[in-house]
Amino acid sequence: MADNQPITRFSAILLWNRTVPGGEVFTVGNRAELIRMPIRYPDVIIMIDYGLFDPDNLFIVSMHFPHTRQIYYI
Question: Residue 30 CB: number of other CB atoms within 10 A?
Fold first, then answer.
């Protein structure tokens, strides 16, 4: 998960934990950390605050890691 706002990050994690019991949430703070996650976890679901990353970079991540699922929110 990439989100710099503590309240939305907390809410998303809470919702995720109630929806997907046993699922693990990792937070990232920059592009390099974002790219490392699908390398380590190929079937990862990426939740991103759309305003934090350049859309071109997000497209690149989706092209290089086709097994990831991405959720963008504002």
Answer: 10
DSSP string computed for 33-54: HHHHHHHH-TTPEEEEEGGGS-
Asked if 70 and 48 count as a contact pair (C-beta separation under 8 A), the reply is yes
Listed residue (47, 64, 36) closest to 12, CA to CA: 47
Q: What is the pLDDT of residues 22-73, one digit of tens each?
A: 778 888 888 788 888 888 888 888 777 777 766 676 677 777 777 777 766 6
Tokens 């592009």 sit on residue? 31
Map tokens 């976890």 to a residue.
41
Query: For residue 70, what is the DSSP state?
Result: E
